[in-house]
Amino acid sequence: MPQTPSPGQHRLFSRPSYPEFIRIGKILRKETVGGMLLIAGAVLALIWANTPWSDSYFALRDFHFGPEIFGVNLDLSLGHWAADALLAIFFFLTGLELKKEFVIGDLRRFKTAVVPVTAAFGGVLVPALFYTIINFSAGEETLRGWAIPTATDIAFAVAVLAVIGSALPTALRIFLLTLAVVDDLIAIVIIAFVFTDELKLNYLGLALIPIAAFTILAYAFGKLFANHAWAAWLLLLPLGVLTWIFVFGSGIHATIAGVVLGFCVPVKRRHPGRGRGLAQEFEHRFRPLSSGFAIPVFAFFSAGVSVVGMESAGELFLDPVFWGIVIGLVVGKPIGIMGSTWVLTKFTKASLDEDTKWGDLLGVTLLAGIGFTVSLLVSELSFGLQSPHYEHAKVAILTGSFVAAILGALWLVPRNRRYRVIHERETRDENKDGIPDVYQQDS
Q1: Which residues cross the membrane (predicted)?
Q2: What pLDDT sits at residue 270?
């Protein structure tokens, strides 16, 4: 029987505010499609890279082109363009989502933010610790990959939920999404500070000019950009491209430019009225570009690894990098998230919502072990394209993500009947305005 919370006690995974419920639901539906395309891109790359025509795949991935602009050499391979330029779109949306969560989302309130934030840190620290322990005696080179198993790919995870038909309660779905958003924030910090070998302050200073212009225009003419897409393409896009070039030239990974620009977009409307704010409008416009093109193309160029071309399976399985990543994703993620959440319930006034069991949380933490997009990016930054550890890391990411998806599905599917009962009960609670009674207080 669920325990009745004492006065002042906060329920973990309780129902979110109604606007948050609607907003996150829309995002999840879009991420489902994007996750399917991501999986398709990765599978196509794996098949092509392991056929007799594999040389053509790697020739395409390694094809170089690009000019030199403002002294920045942009002669990059297609794979490099996908990782640095296309993923900047994904990270721009991440920046928008992070700012919205902290300004108008549930993360603006400490009592709702503390749970996913704490869980995200646990889900980063424990996999990194597992990886470090496994690779400690292997040398400094393999230790560079400690951040690879720390990421959660929300698009992939939501796609798995769609495939298995899970009726996971909305509160837990939002927890998984928020966990992944905070997880991305931590990954952004790691990429910016850990994988910047040489910082060129002159280019970083130059980047501040288009960033400042972008911010001023976004706040001054938010209504124009929200109502007329052409205005944003004509005025803001060139500033975004300049920012990307200068950040790339500074030595910081260029995707950070996307995050910074995302934070420069206003969330709230300056004048009350109907319609979306600029951040929400940009998210609506650019998410299909990210989910439908940028991420699948990145997955296509990053996931291709010639397993049949490896010298031996023994070489793969003897590499501690492989086991550090797989165990970090499959074991470290659930332990880190579950453990940190359990600590919250033991040493604070927080408790699980009456509809949420620890077994439900375990299923979510297993899905959080699906690390793909950011993990592939970090593996490239950790080892470089020519390192055999990089190829092993890609196989490990694919293996760990696949195992996590299977375990999450096997755990959650038998619980679908109970989840549907919860959903039907919440549906019956809808009032005459179409808003569930449980959301009236916060709407």
Answers
A1: 32-49, 69-93, 113-134, 146-168, 175-195, 201-222, 229-246, 252-268, 289-309, 321-344, 364-383, 395-413
A2: 67
- Side-chain-side CA neighbours of 412 within 13 Å: the count stands at 31
Cβ-Cβ contacts under 8 Å for 179 (sequence gap 6 or more): 116, 119, 120, 123, 152, 337, 368
Contact status, residue 308 vs residue 50, Cβ threshold 8 Å: yes
| Strand 76-77, strand 64-65: pairing | antiparallel
Q: 246-266 b/e with 16+ CB inside 10 Å = b?
A: bbbbbbbbbbbbbbbbbbbbb
Each domain of the chain, given as residue ranges in start order, spans 18-424
Question: What's the pLDDT tens digit per position in 156-193?
Answer: 777 777 776 566 776 777 777 778 878 878 888 888 88
Cα end-to-end span (Å), the chain: 30
Helix spans in 104-169 (H): 110-135, 140-143, 154-164
Residue written as token pair 């501040």:
208
Is pTM beyond 0.85? Reply is no
Residue found under tokens 């959650």: 412
Read off the tokens for 194.
């850990």
**CATH architecture designation of domain 18-424:** Up-down Bundle (1.20)
220 token code pair:
């001054």
Beta bridge partners of 300: none
Per-residue pLDDT band at 443 (split at 50, 70, 90): very low
Phi, psi of 69 (to 5 degrees): -125, 125
